[in-house]
Write a structure and sequence with these properties.
- This protein has one domain: Rossmann fold.
- Helix content is 23%, strand content 24%.
- It is built from 6 helices and 12 strands.
- The strands form 3 sheets. The protein has an 8-stranded mixed β-sheet, with helices on both faces. Strands 6-7 form a two-stranded antiparallel ribbon. A two-stranded antiparallel sheet has the order 9-10.
């Protein structure tokens, strides 16, 4: 009894995080620029493009900033509508591949969390698909996107199934389409909606109907997971300075 009374309580609690040395890791087999062109990547891009079209925005002759452009899979979509496209991408090797595929489209190498967008001016459409969940500092990135956006931000990300505005840290492999430093976040939908509003967007929307892809067609369980049945959970957000009247959009702010 006396010994139990002297025992100090565990005020820290258990921590079971394994160590990692990202700098010493090698790129996984198949983790080079070819990952952007495999069938799963092309398939989800088709669903993403169909979702953008379904929103019903007037995209004719807009000035578009493609953030986290990869090798440029969305460039032809916008240019076919007469848009003037500028891109930004974080990895030099992907920038080189983009320039090989789209030599007449300006692209800049930079981390969206720290990149100075002021020299580029402002854009009617800021397109940022498949990037936010790879970042370490998502709010810093969203502030930069807000500063660059004169009209509408189209944003797609993996999300955490949680009703609260939460973030979960995640390790990512050294594949070229993953986090630059190996550590990333998974935001909840509430986090994205709140962050978009707090950085300055007055109007934030989700889609009334999810895209035709299993990553978007989810039963929401509030289980704080970012994947289910072997698929990541994704959502598309539309943020704007002005109210949008498209029936395909559902307001996320009260």
């Amino acid at each position: 009894m006396f010994q139990r009374w002297l025992r100090k309580p565990d005020l820290v609690g258990p921590v079971t995080i394994s160590s990692r040395d990202f700098a010493s890791e090698s790129v996984p087999d198949g983790g080079d620029v070819r990952v952007f062109d495999n069938e799963p990547a092309l398939r989800i891009n088709r669903a993403r493009l169909a979702a953008i079209e379904a929103v019903g925005l007037d995209l004719t002759s807009r000035r578009v900033l493609d953030v986290g452009s990869g090798p440029g899979h969305f460039v032809d979509f916008y240019r076919s509508r007469g848009c003037d496209v500028t891109a930004i991408e974080g990895r030099p090797e992907i920038v080189s591949e983009f320039r090989r595929r789209h030599p007449d489209v300006p692209i800049y190498a930079g981390n969206v969390e720290r990149f100075d967008f002021s020299a580029l001016g402002r854009f009617d459409i800021v397109h940022c698909f498949g990037l936010l969940y790879h970042l370490e500092n998502p709010i810093a990135a969203l502030r930069n996107l807000f500063d660059a956006c004169a009209g509408v931000l189209l944003l797609e990300t993996i999300v955490l199934d949680a009703e609260e505005p939460l973030l979960a840290l995640a390790d990512e492999p050294k594949t070229v389409n993953q986090a630059l430093g190996g550590i990333a976040i998974r935001p909840s939908r509430a986090f994205v909606a709140m962050a978009l509003n707090r950085v300055g967007f007055r109007h934030v929307y989700g889609l009334s109907r999810p895209p035709s892809h299993e990553d978007f067609q989810v039963d929401w369980l509030n289980d704080r997971r970012s994947e289910r049945d072997g698929h990541p959970i994704r959502s598309i957000f539309v943020a704007s300075h002005h109210a949008l009247m498209q029936p395909a959009l559902r307001p996320l702010l009260s």
